[in-house]
Specification:
The complex is a heterotrimer of chains A (about 260), B (about 160) and C (about 800). Chain A is an alpha+beta fold and about 260 residues long. A 5-stranded antiparallel β-sheet of chain A has the order 4-5-10-6-7. A 4-stranded antiparallel β-sheet of chain A has the order 11-12-13-14, with helices on both faces. A 3-stranded parallel β-sheet of chain A has the order 1-3-2, with helices on one face. Chain A folds into 2 domains: about 45 residues, 2-Layer Sandwich (Uridine Diphospho-n-acetylenolpyruvylglucosamine Reductase, domain 2), CATH 3.30.43; about 200 residues, 2-Layer Sandwich (Uridine Diphospho-n-acetylenolpyruvylglucosamine Reductase, domain 3). Chain B is of the alpha+beta class. Helix content of chain B is about 30%, strand content about 15%. In chain B, helix 2 runs antiparallel to helix 5. Chain C is α+β, with helices and mostly antiparallel strands and about 800 residues long. Chain C folds into 3 domains: about 190 residues, Aldehyde oxidase/xanthine dehydrogenase, a/b hammerhead (Aldehyde Oxidoreductase, domain 3); about 325 residues, Aldehyde Oxidoreductase, domain 4 (2-Layer Sandwich); about 150 residues, Aldehyde oxidase/xanthine dehydrogenase, molybdopterin binding domain (Aldehyde Oxidoreductase, domain 4). Chain C is built from 20 helices and 28 strands. The N and C termini of chain C lie far apart (about 60 Å). The chains are: A alpha+beta (about 260), B alpha+beta (about 160), C alpha+beta (about 800). Chains in contact: A-B, A-C, B-C. The interface between B and C is large, with 56 and 58 residues.
Chain lengths: ~260, ~160, ~800
């Protein structure tokens, strides 16, 4: 990788300042995606701002909302009794990200800020109608994910926590890329107070997206049968050596059906 | 040059690094702990897995500066000073869970963490799933799975 | 003491260092004053090099030197040699274009070395390499067999028109065509054998170290055959005599063929260490491995079997195109010829066979032997074709094999494709495998799977392979430019302990244990008093190395011969000491005995006498107890057996799971059953990988799409089942151990078993054939097309 300056601020304000002062500075959370990017010399940050000194860890459940600190690792979420009890699908999803070593260091904030089109957390955030809390504001998930590797975050804006409203039921299923093990198709379904929500990751050219037709069908009848015949147009889906866009379109239906069945 | 102080296999070291230096480079090149290997550059093969503060981490996907103040255990730090192998090492030997030996250090470190995280018992499927982050090209995993299953009761004092 | 000899599953001696992180791999070696090399590689599949500007790189921090192809060309340095010459149908030699160490004039594949930067640190070398400016003119690329053979295709080498390396054949075409013309039925199959990337877990590495005072070069390298590297690099590339060139292959983290060959980086670091007068290390990043390690397989074939009304095989006709890549790797030409077409009889008594092979240059990484090398390609073709015969005739898959097997009493059996099999019993391996796999109970399992919504299939492969390569004279007559014997030096020390120096190289095979067991067996020395040394040309008299499952059959036989000499000499010393006639001395259990008496001397008594020859037949016998043998095999060995795979397909996603895998192999004498099982399991894992997961994919422009482990699917633990391995052995009749070899059988026998099972699972969809890898997307497209539609690719 290219060399860079390194800072490990002790306060959120200092971190925001460090990032805001330099357009080429980049935040480092767990580094499970960003360090491989650096190793491949695909990024050349001037400064890497390590967020690990900021705290921002921990899980709380109150008022029907699960709040997870941005620097909380996937392993912590996967093993959390509070999350398992409140939104078991979210704990299960965290347990499906990468491998153990990745889950030990990877963080929810990093995953959501990166918005990798094949990452898992964006699907949960979108399907559960999460709120992304930053150093300066709160952003609805529907407004947050703006395209592949692209979010509503401003330069220097740091996610501090993610708030997930507890749904009536939810589940996440994914079909993995056999080589990278990222999602070829991942579907998070949730039955929420505002109706059913379905978010698809891995498949879309623009990153995670909501599946309106399935949401409509599930809002009326939250069962796998309700979405059985629903076709997903392949036009806007990714195609690569592992899965054509037609195959992905098919898998969206299969994986969504399994997720709904799993949600019960 | 930045300096990083960390504890490796119980011994504290202060080393000069670049900010871009990886933990695995510190272990292999600065501390001559060459048991930790690098088998890929996409964080998938797991040959570099060590324990950082007691849990598994890919030392090729961690900056040395991130490891400041941590306690790292490598494959060299597993056996007792008298040479007695860790039960996982012993079961790898007993069940012929290694051939060329290159993936073995990472495999053993991951396996220990995996067994630590399943105190109540571990199924074959859980072992296979738990090895997602470790590649072996020699064994077909058959004997690795057997070795880990056999190490479980030894590590949890049930044998 | 527990039994440690032949047949004991002794735990491995080498494990202690590997389990403690004390292995000594090439990248673990650091020489005083060492510099680091980074190889700048072409990102173009095919381009003319107009200019290379190294000025900025040369001035970058830490940089000591930058070399290009022009610097190499200015010296007395040859191209990378090819070790095997094939002749065309018309008797003319194959095209053998130069393979420069660093590209000159043109780059011919993504990954072709174009410059090397040598700097104080690895990162500095890599940083500076970005400053090497290359002006290219892109040329059209021929990135596949089809593209390279198309009319008007780009030519990879200007002086090789049509990109044909050779057009070779074996068999009498007229006779075979005659058989086909009169046959009851002809069954035809078009198939490909997918290109693979070996991906031994240890990336290649090399350290060159030149000693200014002595003029000696030392190369530490990730090699399966250090003496071969010394020979090739010393004699053909750098022109360094053997006495000034030491090659060390220390612990090597897997090879699978990919570390047989002499690679450019070995020559670069060796040569550069003398230029810069400091040791130079190069270690591949995995991404580099993908674009610079020799790939494997990559065949396109048409196969036809002529049969009579009973399904008896009357004749086989095969036409194959084999991808050589951009240059000839060390042993590439022999893989699709003498390691492939000669195997097409398989386990069957097919009376006539004709095979023609076009080897083709393309703008891709060179292709060479990968675990099995030619034999997996032959086996996949044949075992798929046999299933196609069953499919087309309605004859049961097992029956058709039984009908056509070479019977157990027919050995030695001369095939129509040059090989003479010495032993085998294919009915037995088949019968045991059917039993172990509960073939008879399969339909119940299929029904149960169906109730769970899964498509279950079972597949069989009754394969044969040839290994233990090779009789030197035979290999030479077929185009080998080397002998293929093996060398062992057995040193019995004064106090009776033993060191074995072997020309075989262990990179996972457990030689330090297995070879020691041979000594336990023959000399009666306890295992812990035996050490096996390999991988260093300064220590080992000579050696041809480890590949083609040859180490035990050839290298082990050399040890047996050397120990025979030890015993013969020991008998003379014992006869002298015990005042008996040599003919009366017997040796067993570490002890020389005068026959019919209780007079005896231990091996230690004898070895001590040999080194302290006070009372010694000094006029007839030299002191010492140290013998060397070169063993040249009389024939290949012929392992064979039966692999049965059972799969379940999820019809909703097309995902395949191998749920049972049963192997029954005939590997001849087994020294260490635990190690044999491990070898077979590992080979099968690679075979299942080829069948289901692995594919090196180039796009039309010549870019390697599956260029990292993010896109090239390596088998993981959750992709594989438990692998049930058994052996039913017949002895090799022509080597002293009776061993045949086990390193490759898994990779050879398993792929067609898996694909045959998948075709069986999909039989209601009209699937007669499927090429590898059988990915979920491919299977889904078949299922999606609906039952009874021909949808296989």
């Amino acid at each position: 990788m290219y060399d860079f300056a390194y800072q490990k601020p002790g306060s959120l304000a200092d971190a925001v300042k460090a990032l805001g002062a330099d357009g080429d500075a980049k935040a480092l959370a767990g580094g499970m995606t960003y360090i491989p990017v650096l190793k491949q010399r695909l990024a050349k940050p001037s400064t890497v701002v390590d967020l690990s000194g900021l705290g921002m860890k921990g899980i709380s459940v109150a008022g029907g909302v699960v709040k997870i600190g941005a620097m909380t690792t996937h392993m912590t979420v996967a093993n959390s009794a509070e999350v398992k009890s409140a939104i078991p699908a979210l704990a299960a999803l965290a347990g499906m990200i990468g491998d153990d070593a990745v889950r030990h260091r990877g963080t929810i904030g990093g995953s959501i800020a990166n918005n990798d089109p094949a990452a898992d957390y964006p699907a949960a955030a979108l399907a559960l109608g999460a709120t992304i809390v930053t150093d300066r504001r709160s952003i609805k998930a529907d407004d947050f994910f703006t395209g592949m590797f692209s979010t509503a975050l401003e330069q220097g804006e740091i996610i501090t926590a993610v708030e997930f409203p507890v749904p009536a039921k939810a589940a996440y299923e994914k079909f993995r890329n056999p080589a990278s093990r990222y999602a070829i198709v991942g579907v998070f379904v949730a039955r929420t107070a505002g109706g059913a929500r379905v978010a698809v990751t891995g498949a879309g050219q623009g990153g995670v997206f909501r599946h309106a037709e399935m949401e409509k069908a599930l809002t009326g009848n939250f069962s796998a049968a309700a979405i059985k015949g629903i076709k997903t147009p392949p036009n806007d889906l990714n195609g690569d050596i592992h899965a054509s866009s037609e195959y992905r379109a098919h898998l969206v239906g299969v994986i969504a059906g399994r997720a709904v069945a799993k949600a019960g | 040059m930045p300096q990083v102080t960390l504890t490796v296999n119980g011994k504290q070291h202060t080393v000069e690094v670049e900010n871009r230096t990886l933990l695995v480079e510190v272990l292999r090149e600065k501390l001559a702990l060459t048991g930790t290997h690098v088998g890929c550059d996409t964080s998938q093969c797991g040959a570099c897995v060590v324990h950082v503060d007691g849990i598994s981490a890919k030392s090729c996907t961690m900056l040395a500066v991130q490891a400041a103040g941590t306690s790292v255990t490598t494959i060299e730090g597993l056996a007792k000073p008298d040479g007695t192998l860790h039960p996982m090492q012993e079961m790898f030997r007993e069940h012929h869970a290694l051939q060329c030996g290159f993936c073995t250090p990472g495999m053993v470190m991951s396996a220990i963490d995996l067994v630590n995280n399943h105190p109540g018992g571990i199924t074959e499927q859980e072992i296979r799933d738990g090895l997602e982050g470790n590649l072996c090209r020699c064994t077909g995993y058959h004997n690795i799975v057997k070795a880990i299953a056999a190490a479980h009761p030894l590590m949890h004092g049930k044998a | 003491m527990a039994f440690e000899g032949i047949g004991a599953s002794v735990r491995r001696k080498e494990d202690a260092r590997f389990l403690n992180g004390r292995g000594n791999y090439t990248d673990d070696i650091n020489r005083p004053g060492q510099l680091h090399a980074y190889v700048k590689r072409s990102d173009r599949p095919h381009a003319k090099i107009n200019s290379i500007d190294t000025a900025a790189a040369s001035k970058a921090p830490g940089v000591v030197a930058v070399f290009t192809g022009a610097d190499i060309a200015a010296e007395n340095i040859g191209g990378l040699p090819c070790g095997w010459q094939i002749h065309n149908k018309d008797g003319s030699p194959m095209a053998e274009p130069p393979h420069p160490v660093i590209a000159v004039g043109k780059v011919r594949h993504v990954g072709d070395p174009i410059a090397v930067v040598i700097a104080e640190t690895k990162q500095q070398a890599k940083d500076a390499a970005e400053l090497v400016a290359i002006d290219y003119t892109d040329l059209p690329a021929a990135a596949s067999l089809a593209a390279a053979l198309a009319p008007g295709a780009a030519t990879v080498h200007d002086d090789v028109p049509g990109n044909i390396c050779y057009d070779w054949h074996i068999g009498d075409k007229a006779i075979v065509d005659g058989v086909f013309a009169n046959a009851h039925k002809v069954v035809r199959l078009d198939l490909t054998n997918n290109r693979l990337i070996p991906n031994a877990m240890e990336p290649r590495a090399a350290v060159g170290d030149y000693d200014v005072n002595s003029g000696e070069y030392t190369l530490y390298t990730t090699s399966q055959n250090p003496h071969v590297i010394r020979l090739l690099m010393g004699a053909f590339v750098l022109h360094i005599p053997e006495n000034k060139l030491r090659v060390v292959a220390p612990d090597v983290g897997g090879g699978f063929g990919s570390k047989i060959y002499h690679y450019a980086e070995e020559a670069i670091v060796t040569w550069a260490s003398a230029k810069v007068r400091r040791p130079v290390k190069w270690t591949a990043e995995r991404t580099e491995s993908f674009m610079s390690d020799a790939h494997g397989r990559d065949h396109v074939s048409t196969a036809e079997m002529a049969i009579d009304a009973q399904g008896t095989f009357l004749g086989l006709r095969v036409s194959t195109q084999a991808n050589m890549g951009a240059y000839l790797s060390t042993f590439a030409p022999c893989v699709p010829t003498y390691l492939y077409a000669t195997l097409l009889a398989g386990t069957y008594k097919t009376p006539v066979i004709y095979c023609e092979v076009k080897a083709v240059f393309t703008n891709t990484v060179p292709v060479d032997a990968y675990r099995g090398a030619g034999r997996p390609e032959a086996t996949f073709l044949l075992e798929r074709l046999v299933d196609a015969v069953a499919y087309d005739t309605g004859i049961d898959r097992v029956d058709i094999r039984r009908r056509n097997f070479i019977p157990a009493d027919a050995f030695p059996y001369q095939t129509p494709v040059a090989l003479q099999y010495d032993s085998g019993d294919y009915q037995t391996t088949l019968a045991v495998a059917l039993k172990n796999a509960d073939w008879a109970g399969f339909e119940a399992r299929r029904t149960a799977a169906k109730a769970r919504g899964k498509l279950r299939g079972i597949g069989i492969s009754t394969y044969l392979e040839a290994c233990g390569i090779a009789p030197s004279a035979v290999a030479g007559s077929l185009g080998a430019r080397a002998g293929l014997y093996e060398v062992a030096n057995i040193r019995v020390h004064p106090t009776g302990s033993v060191t074995v120096f072997t020309g075989s190289h262990s990179h996972g095979q457990g030689h330090e244990t297995t070879f020691a067991q041979l000594v336990v067996d023959q000399l009666g020395v306890p295992l812990d008093q035996i050490d096996v040394v390999h991988g260093d040309t300064a220590k080992i008299p000579f050696g041809m190395g480890t590949y083609g499952s040859r180490s035990l059959a050839v290298g082990g036989s050399a040890m047996v011969k050397a120990m025979d000499k030890i015993i013969a000499k020991g008998k003379k010393i014992a006869a002298h000491l015990m005042e008996a006639s040599v003919e009366d001395i017997e040796f067993a259990n570490n002890t020389f005995t005068v026959a019919g008496t209780d007079k005896s001397k231990t091996l230690t008594d004898i070895s001590l006498t040999a080194y302290v020859p006070h009372n010694y037949p000094i006029d007839e016998l030299e002191p010492g107890l140290d013998e060397t043998a070169f063993y040249d095999p009389k024939n290949f060995t012929f392992p064979g057996g039966c692999h049965i795979s059972e799969v379940e397909i999820d019809p909703d996603t097309g995902t395949v799971a191998v749920v049972n895998f049963t192997a029954v192999d005939d590997v001849g004498r087994v020294i260490n059953p635990m190690i044999v099982e491990g070898q077979v399991q590992g080979g099968i894992a690679q075979g299942i990988g080829q069948a289901l997961l692995e594919a090196a994919i180039y796009d039309e422009s010549g870019q390697l799409i599956s260029g990292s482990m993010m896109d090239y699917t390596m088998p993981r633990a959750d992709n594989l089942p438990n692998i049930h391995v058994a052996t039913e052995n017949t002895m090799c009749t022509h080597n002293p151990l009776g061993s045949k070899g086990c390193g490759e059988v898994g990779a050879i026998g398993s792929p067609p078993a898996v694909i045959n099972a998948i075709c069986d699972a999909l039989k209601d969809y009209g699937v007669r054939h499927m090429n590898m890898p059988a990915t979920s997307g491919k299977i889904w497209s078949i299922i999606n097309a609906g039952p009874s539609k021909m949808a296989a690719d």
